[in-house]
Amino acid sequence: MDGSELERALKELVAMEGVNASAVVTRDGIMVEFLNKHAPEEVLPLSAVVAMMLRTAEKCTRMLNKGDMEEIITKADNGVILTEKCEEFIFLVAADKGFDFESIKQKKVKVKDAIRNMV
Fold it and tell me: What is the reported pTM?
């Protein structure tokens, strides 16, 4: 598993204006890669919480007969977090409030391609 392509793709994404952090986590809650503009240290419980959020959202969509869960959008006072499935991984992007996620569509594709190349 070569993570250098993933690391480069995440660095490009986090370097964009309005993006604060990005992470790739396994579905079991293990942090694969984490980049944060404001605090370079890794947030230890983040990976476990992200995995639980995804499993909960997947279960809710099934229970409510809404199909397969595609993404979770978490809105907070100071920003937005987008959480998506990608293969057997979870991809997270934290951005400023009001951020237009369409503006990073190509960067997200690059990260997802890097994730797929790791499998």
Answer: 0.87
